[in-house]
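Risk register update: the risk of archive-format incompatibility is retired. Evidence:
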Amino acid sequence: MTGNKFNEFVEIVKRLRKECPWDREQTNDSIKAATIEEAYEVVEAIEKKNFEELKNELGDLLLHVVFHTIIASETQNFKINDVIDSIQEKLVRRHPHVFGEVKVSGSDEVKKNWETIKLDEGRNSVLDGIPEMLPALQRAHRLQEKAAKVGFDWEKKEDVWKKVIEEVEEMHLSEGEGNYDKLEDEIGDVFFALVNYARFLGVNPENALRRTNSKFIHRFSYVESKIKDLGKKLADSNLQEMDKYWEESKKIV
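Archived output:
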C-alpha cells in the first residue's frame, strides 16, 4: 500500500509539472531556497513537539525531493528510482555491522567506521561532505565531530575550557590593536572554542542558540507589550524602564 501511495504522489507532482504554469517554470536552482526553508520548518515542528505540524512539514519536504528529481529527470540526469537506489546502496554499504559480518562495540565505533568507509569511497578528507551553506555554528560543530571520530580531539573537557578562556583573553587583547581582520579572527576562535566545549558537554550548540534566540524574542516581546500598555512607543521609553520589564519577563519565560 505504501508503495502505491508513493507512486500516486509522484504522478501528482508530474502532472503539476506539466499542467501548472508556475510549476513548469521552476528549476532546481529556483526552488533551492524554498527547499532549505522547508527543512527548517521541519526542525521548528520538531522543537515545538507538534506532530501534526511535523507530518505536514515532512510532506512539504518530500514534495521538494520528488520535485527536484522530476526536474532532473527531464534532462536525463537521474530518476526517482536512481535516488532511492543510491540511498539504499549507501545505507547498506555504510552499515556493515548490520548487513555484513563486522562487529562493533557501540555507537562510537559505528561513527568511526562510517568516516573510514566514506574515505574508502573516494573522499579526500574526513571533512569532505560538510555543506559550506550550513550555518557557521552548525558547521563548526560538524567539523569538530568529524575530526573527533578519527581521534583528533581533546582528552579532557577541562583542557577545552582552558582553551575557551585563552581565546577570550586573546580576543580582548586584540580589541585595542585597531586591526579589524585580526579581531574578527579572534572572535571566530572564541565561537569555535565554545562550540567545542559544548560538544564535550553533549550539547548541540545550534540547538542551544536557537533556544536562546527564542527566549530573547519572548522576553523582548513582553517588554514591548508592557511599554505599549503604558501608551508609549519603545522610542519614547528608556533603558531603565525597559530593563525593569525585562527582569519581569525572566519570571515568566
